[in-house]
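DM from R.C. (forwarded with permission)

"hey, sorry to bug you on a friday — could you get me a structure for this? deadline for the figure draft is monday and I only need the backbone to look sensible"
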Amino acid sequence: MKKAGIAIIIVGLLFTIITGFKYFTREKVLDIGSLKITASEPHRVNWSPALGIGIMAVGGAVLLFGKK
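My reply, with the result:
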């Protein structure tokens, strides 16, 4: 359980430091015969740093109160 608690704390730390990411999707704008025009549309996924702090708290609880 000690290794699991440490791993959960590390994941929580990463969630606190990295608060989101961006990805792109391709959308077909125009398709006339052999002429094809696409556009890249950005999307963002964000979360609160409080989520990472909560995950770290759970990891600390697993580390302290888990089976030995």
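R.C.: lifesaver. The CA atoms of residues 5 and 47 lie 22 Å apart.
me: no worries. Residues 2-65 form one domain.
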